[in-house]
UniProtKB/TrEMBL annotation:
The chain crosses the membrane at residues 16-34, 40-63. It comes from the Bacteria. This is HrgC protein. Keywords: Membrane, Transmembrane, Transmembrane helix.
Length: 110
């Protein structure tokens, strides 16, 4: 399942996968290099070197989540309603409500 993201500050659009990373399964840390994700490329490379490749088994399940979280922190937002629903259901973003029923109680002193 893919989500479409857009960064309004930099005017960039990206598509990211949610879930298990088959590319990390087959190619190790190379997908992070092609995505320009230098931080996770070096972390994965170092972890795989230190653990004789066992960290590879962990990153297959985590890398797409880590990459997507970094994009959201960098200011990317869902560019369509389907992507927003996917990110909401997976817990990457939280829907904010503009009107709260508790706004009327802000002036009260307890």
């Amino acid at each position: 399942m893919f989500v479409n993201l857009y960064n309004p500050r930099t005017n960039q659009a990206k598509q990211a996968k949610v879930g298990f990373s088959w590319t990390v399964f087959f190619f190790g840390s190379i997908p992070a290099l092609f995505r320009g994700d230098w931080k996770w490329f070096f972390i994965m490379l170092l972890a795989n070197t230190l653990t004789a490749g066992f960290a590879h088994l962990v990153f297959m399940f985590l890398y797409n989540k880590l990459y997507l979280s970094d994009l959201i922190v960098a200011g990317f937002v869902p560019s369509d309603e389907a992507s927003k629903r996917i990110l909401l259901s997976k817990g990457f973003i939280v829907e904010t409500r503009q009107d709260s029923p508790f706004d009327d109680f802000d002036d009260l002193d307890f």
